[in-house]
Amino acid sequence: MAQTLPLNQDITLSVIKTACSSCNLRELCLPYGLNLEELERLDDLVSTRRRIKRGDHLYRAGEAFDSIYAIRSGFFKTDVLLEDGRDQVTGFQMAGELLGLDGISTEHHTCNAIALEDSEICSIPFNRLESLSREIHTLQHHFHKVMSREIVRDHGVMMLLGTMRAEERLAAFLLNLSQRFTARGFSHAEFYLRMTREEIGSYLGLKLETVSRAFSRFQEEGYIAVQQKHIRILDVNGLKALMNHRA
Amino acid sequence: MAQTLPLNQDITLSVIKTACSSCNLRELCLPYGLNLEELERLDDLVSTRRRIKRGDHLYRAGEAFDSIYAIRSGFFKTDVLLEDGRDQVTGFQMAGELLGLDGISTEHHTCNAIALEDSEICSIPFNRLESLSREIHTLQHHFHKVMSREIVRDHGVMMLLGTMRAEERLAAFLLNLSQRFTARGFSHAEFYLRMTREEIGSYLGLKLETVSRAFSRFQEEGYIAVQQKHIRILDVNGLKALMNHRA
DNA sequence: TTTTACGGTTGACATGGATCAAGCCAACGC
DNA sequence: GCGTTGGCTTGATCCATGTCAACCGTAAAA
User: Fold this and answer.
1) Are B205 and B158 in contact (CB under 8 A)?
2) Which among A111, A141, A246 has CB closest to B84?
3) pLDDT per residue as tens digits for the range B49-99
């Protein structure tokens, strides 16, 4: 049956649709700044798309590394496990962000990447990305910027964990989510959390009860409206003020 | 006077000595894995050495970024400042390690790098490093590994700040220092701290008093001998056990 | 519709580390 | 030699967050 199917417009379109060159995230993701010809060369490399169901691993700590992943849609968390069972969420990633950069260092993944909702990712074989970025200066430079941005982000988290108190951490967390949703064209003021209180707590170095209490407190103060995972930010400046409060 | 000076052997030698190809840190630093010809091409790029006196800044947050720096000798800290005056030490760097990777992202440095003892650094103009790594695959790959290693290291710090208690953090810190001194051919068991208790505390998300008490406690337990900045590790396994103690 | 399960909320209490305060030690200048 | 200074140690007390426990709400399963 497939062989009798005409190569019509629809098929062409659907092929194009899986390519970076027609991805609506290209201004956020790896293709940023590339011209059309360069984009097409990147397309060759990013051919594989994969669906990851909610709760499934994209990769696990210890597995051999050979690709990095761009999130096409959905939501992930990454976490690190200590031998003694403690674990720490190291980040939450959304559409247009890259996963797997930690694996380059040892050629093995050093954390787990788990989908928090049904998601779709693009695999980018790393050795091919390296060779292409030897040819496309813009791609090389942008990739370096992405890695560097990850380092800067991590410093921000260290700041948060090292110097902020519970409510400041949560305020920073909400403002960060809000800003990232905005960059993706969603409402800055209203969104659904994809993660549990426990996962938020793990990321922020707090217990889930503390997260829950802080949410309640924010609601009492009129900064936000919470109902379970649904968040509405009512007073951005209030949250910002709270964050920079201490001397 | 300078113009009458003969171009003698000594001068040639001193020039060679400032090159990566004859640097005894090359197996730890950027040149790792390069062959002789490649090393010489890197030498062209890393011509500038600079001395930084104890307490001086190598760069400051906000300054334009154009180079990364390799530590030739000495010891640095990096820190981030919040508007409200709080600050957090994000890392301590020693010989063979790179500084400034955070600046690639925004083309401005995002943290301060301060020498904790009189130090010497090699400047590496970043655009030239990028073009050279487009030509030398090994260099490109190694640079990516170094950036990735920084990300992994930061995850380790997040783990530490997010899930460990004071004594565990300090034990992890001492073991990490010890391991890095070992990699540089120094004693794994005996060393001088270059940073104050306050700087350790800032890095570990603790107050200086807590750091001091933890040192005293380690000494009472016979894990270490401390005298001011001089540390002797008496029981590595004790420290390791302490780190993995909790369930 | 009822049951079950999981995540979330809230309260009471415990505690690790922060804070405040005093004093000590070593290096340095006078 | 003596005072000063900056960093370190130690003690007493306080408080933010952890811990433990009960209960609630929502959504999926029966």
Assistant:
1) no
2) A246
3) 899 999 999 999 999 999 999 999 999 999 999 888 889 999 999 999 999
Which positions in strand D are less than 7 Å from the protein's CB atoms? Answer: 7-12, 16-21, 26
- Amino acid A212 reads S
| Contact yes or no for A162 and B161 at CB 8 A | yes
Question: Does the distance separating the beta carbons of A158 and B141 come in below 8 Å?
Answer: no
pLDDT at residue number B19? 86
Closest Cβ opposite residue A105 in set B80, B85, B145: B145
Task: Give residue numbers, 187 to 226 of A, with CB < 7 Å from strand C.
Answer: 193, 196-198, 208-209, 211-213, 215-216, 226
CA B218/CA B235 separation, integer angstroms: 10
Min CA distance, B138 vs chain A (Å)? Answer: 11
The pLDDT score that the predictor gives to residue B243 is 87
Task: Assess contact for B229 and B197: CB atoms under 8 A.
Answer: no
Q: Do B224 and B215 form a contact (C-beta atoms < 8 A)?
A: yes
> Is the distance from CB of B155 to CB of B193 less than 8 angstroms?
no
Nearest CB neighbour to B148, from listed A84, A105, A247: A105
- The predicted pLDDT at position B2 comes to 40
B25 and B96 Cβ atoms separated by less than 8 Å: yes
Q: For the whole model, what pTM was predicted?
A: 0.92
Question: Average pLDDT of each block of 10 consecutive residues along chain B (247 residues)?
Answer: 41 55 91 93 89 95 97 96 90 97 98 96 96 97 98 97 97 97 93 96 98 97 94 96 73
Name the helix (H) or strand (E) containing B139: helix B137-163
- Give me the CA B114–C1' C2 separation in Å, rounded: 66
Length of chain B as a residue count = 247
Q: Which of B244, B220, B77, B222 is nearest to B171 (CA)?
A: B244
Backbone angles phi and psi of A104, in degrees to 5: -60, -40
Q: What is the pLDDT of residues A21-71, one digit of tens each?
A: 989 899 899 999 999 999 999 999 987 889 999 999 999 999 999 999 999
Whole-number pLDDT of residue A9: 40
Percent of chain B past pLDDT 90, that is, above it, reads: 83
**Is A147 an interface residue toward B (CB < 8 Å)?**
yes
